[in-house]
Amino acid sequence: MDNEEMVQLVTKEILRQLQQNPVITQGQSLPSQHKALIIFTGGTIGFEQGLAEIKKLQGLCFAVTAVLSASAEQILGIERVTEALGSHIDIVTAHSPYPGKILREADIVIIPVLTQNTAAKVAHTLSDTMVSTLILQGLMMGKPVVAACNAADPLDSWRAQYTMGNSSPGLIKALQGNLQKLADFGMELVPVDSIAKVSQKRLCQKEQMAVNHTAEPAVGKPAHKKAVLDAAAIQTAAQNGTKSITVPKGTILTPLARDVARECGVELVQG
């Protein structure tokens, strides 16, 4: 087995372990990896589970800015959001200036509860609210947009619990058609309990694509795919008590991985 194959296997195993245990060891201080724009609508189906998923991402060094629609501010309340995610996070409400700069700087847009109303607006490209505008512009910027679709799915089991599972075939078709349009626009629709896992995966893919683009050989030279050692691998190694990691020659070490290694006291030895 060559060095490239070894690093790929190690990275795959580390990512698997991260998915099983995505919380940082208590007392560790790590730099923020990614900026996440979290958009809260006024929906309650899956809201508490959505908060727990965002909390997991914070444990993985995601810096969070929360946007609350007018109905979210009224129904859910700013206090509940800050209680779960911390009073230090930035909050944007319907009365705030439009957060265009925050959207541009965000690495990912996450919607913990996608309501049927918001799904219908975005599916028909209506940008008459701050929330629908942010989602549409995020998609147009090519940013990863991940949304929990439980509240918008007419056949979701939670709908039946709330006695809303008896829709006519025509209504079911229309509501599911809205979700299909969103998927066609590039939105990733997931169950609420998959938000953290899918968001992390999307950004790992984005980082990998950027690294691969950087590592592309010059025209006329043979292509040699290079292995990558990223921040997730360093983070998990530190959690397991590793103090030194040998980096095989030719392996790409991301800048964030160097920062995490320095913060965790892990020595990187060039092999």
TrEMBL record:
Could you tell me one molecular function GO term of this UniProt entry?
catalytic activity
What the entry lists under SUPFAM superfamilies is as follows: Homo-oligomeric flavin-containing Cys decarboxylases, HFCD (SSF52507)
User: Where are the annotated coiled coils located?
Assistant: none
Domain Flavoprotein, by residue range, is 37-150
Full protein name: Flavoprotein
